[in-house]
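User: I'm curious whether this sequence folds into something compact or stays loose and floppy. Could you predict its structure so I can see for myself?
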Amino acid sequence: MMKRRYRLLIPAVAPLLLKSGYLLEAWRHSPLDRWDWCFFLLAGILTAAGWKRIRNWAGRPDWRGLWFLLPAVAVWGAGIVKQVNAVQTGGALLILFSSLFVLGGVRLFSGMLPILLIALAGCPSTTYWSEYYIRISAGTAPVGGLAFKCCAAAALSVYFLLVRRVYRLQTLLFVLGVLLLFGVLYSRESRAGYGQPLLIDPERTEVGGYLGFPSVLSEQEQRFFEGHAVRRAVYYGSVENIRLLAVGITGDIHRIHPAELCLKSMDCDVLSSREKILNPGGRPLAVQEIVALFPNRAKALIYVWYSGPEWSSGNFPAFRRSWKRSERWFAYQLSTPMPDSREAAEERLRDFLVNTVFSSGTRPER
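Assistant: Here's the prediction. I'll summarize afterward.
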């Protein structure tokens, strides 16, 4: 018979219920998140399959669980302050499972850790970020983000069903400390690049030898950037054209996504992605350089950067951490076809940026 104290789990579920509407929208409309509900379903199935064992793990209340519950509340609160839905959802799951520690003891919490990890894989945007960190760590992504999560969930499911092991609090704290140390060291190694802010006016009709014309946004772009000041322009040159997408970030920050995510939702293949520092007109500009293959088999070179009051960066997490509603921020995508060599495409974008800087009053340096 379930003890009355477990009724306290009802408020612990509330933060997750508050995100249910957003999760349903993400599963319906986001191509990269549309299968994430499967991880929540798998977590539920495993809970039902191991229910008898889970009841046996439940013991007396253990207030040491507050060592996990309070940081979980802090994570959830940080997600609210920074307006990051994935962090809010992850924090809500941590609150729920840490409450099991407080109410049922360390055996219950440690035994259900595989289920917690599987549920965390269902948080929005984890497919993109899994692939992102695999690529920047290994230099390439041998598997996609969803495939990686599925493999991890399968391994955790087998572990939960066959190993059935619980751990002492000391072991959990040691593992948590190692993970935190690894996270700190990793973040120091993967520091973002920064440059000077660079703003481009998409309504200009001439940049160097290129003539610019406004271009209509696609329906998907209108949906992606609803509420923001978005302009698209095409600049025609003697060889190839250059396309500019300029987004004045004036609306819901949750509609500003990493460029790779936008490309993947349009069924594009991201062939390579890296951050680099350019030097147009003697001004450092930090960008993300992407080579993408579109559904029509056309290849393009794309520069992406986020420009604020003091700096620019091609690193989306750096932008997202620093964004403030009270400040003016812009996101840019500058692209050109790549039917010829990559060097020629790089030269076109470099000349365009040099002329952009020159026209704003800075002498170009070649």
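Summary: The chain is about 50% helix and 15% strand. The first helix runs from residue 9 to 18.
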